[in-house]
Specification:
globular, alpha+beta
Amino acid sequence: MIEKHGTKRRRSWRALHIGLDAASGRIVAATLTDRGVDDASQVAPLLDQISQPVASVTGDGAYDRTGVCASVHERHPDAAVVAPPRRDAVLSDTATTSPTQRDRHIQTITETGRMAWQRTSGYNKRAGVESQVARWKGVLGDTLRFHSDQAQATEVIVGVAVLKRMLDLGRPNSVRVA
């Protein structure tokens, strides 16, 4: 097995992190990491791939970290960070004088409930990423075909380009007629 494949260990899972433009549904950034890599640590590499201004960054509870907010505000100071705080989250010390975005999220959840916060904050747009992952698996498959890390990274880049092209070909160009 070592002579044939170069290793005797089983292959491991890889994690695909994608950044999606919520308005167009296009993938604007992608990274491929090992399974044990923290999701929040990939925010900076994803943002580095985006040249246009970012209005908001939306992620699940794994993105409720101060490092995520710092990475976003370092690159895009006006961008909103929408990540659901943990159920036992507490307000910061400066919540009464100058509340952070996270403080405002916690206050809104306390006042109106988590489901209402999801609607008002735009958190539900995150479902577009889940649709894009389902599209990826439907079109390209749920496994990577290459074995080396560099080849898999290239495969992801090509996959992103293919999905962008398919999305461009499949989207109607509507024009309003008076």
